Amino acid sequence: MSTPSPGTSRSAPALGRRLPPLQAAIVDLDGTMVDTLGDFEVALARMLADLGYPAVGRAFIARTVGKGSEQLVARTLAEAGAPASLYERAWQRYQHHYLQVNGEHASVYPGVPEGLRMLRARGLRLACLTNKQTSFALPLLQAKGLAGFFDHVFGGDAFARKKPDPLPLVQTCKALATAPAATLMIGDSSNDAAAARAAGCPVVLVSYGYNHGEPVQDVDCDAVIERIDALDALLD
């Protein structure tokens, strides 16, 4: 998947909707801050090779990521024609391989460090909330020089349910000590938007991420932006 070129913010389906005064922002990881498709592709290919199955296509992976590693592994097995009974073995091999390659085939999207720096300069507290396992998310943020921006990092195993359920956002707001209405969700998919709407958070989506193969412009959100640092104009 190509990385986005520098650009300006663009109108979302909710044209004219203003962002409220904010105290904090919650930021998704895969497809929002870091293009991790290459890591997924390599780890899943090695997992399937261990099990005696061929690799799945990159386009399938791009459509499938975003709802947690467990679902990604299960759906990949089905796509490869492997029986569901192999799941436990596949999960073990996936974890092994992903931890080995975590960050090696990934890149930070343009505008991400600048955008996070801008949000901190405006006095906002920041949390990273991802459906990726915490044990994968923390090393990736550290490897890409992004960990220092965040007061909290919560993975998909941090709470009883994952996005698009609102529970992770509600709990993250509690950790930040901020009201949901004053806490912006920044993501790349309908998962992030649905969770934010249900939790009562405003939500802005980036145009370049992994929205399950669907146009992000069709998702109910407050704005769609081409780079995270384009948020500066929306907050003025």
Order of helices and strands: EEHHHHEHEHEHEHEEH
Question: Main sheet: which strands, in order across?
Answer: 5-4-1-6-7-8
Number of domains: 2
Nearest-angstrom radius of gyration? 17 Å
- Structural shape: elongated
What is the fold-level CATH name, i.e. the topology of the largest domain? Rossmann fold
The total strand number stands at 8
- Report the biggest beta sheet as strand number plus sense, adding barrel if it closes: 6 strands, parallel
State the distance separating the first and last CA atoms: 32 Å
Enumerate the spans where pLDDT stays under 50 for 5 or more consecutive residues.
1-16
List the total number of helices: 9
In percent terms, what proportion of residues is strand?
5-15%
Structural class: alpha/beta
What's the overall average pLDDT, rounded?
92
Can you walk through the features of this model?
By secondary structure, the protein is of the alpha/beta class. The chain has two domains: 24-35 and 107-235, 3-Layer(aba) Sandwich (Rossmann fold); 37-101, DNA polymerase, domain 1 (Orthogonal Bundle), CATH 1.10.150. Helix content is 40%, strand content 12%. It is built from nine helices and eight strands. The strands form two sheets. Strands 5-4-1-6-7-8 form a six-stranded parallel beta sheet, sandwiched between helices. The longest helix has 15 residues, at 37-51. The radius of gyration is 17 Å and the shape is elongated. Mean pLDDT is 92; it is low at 1-16.
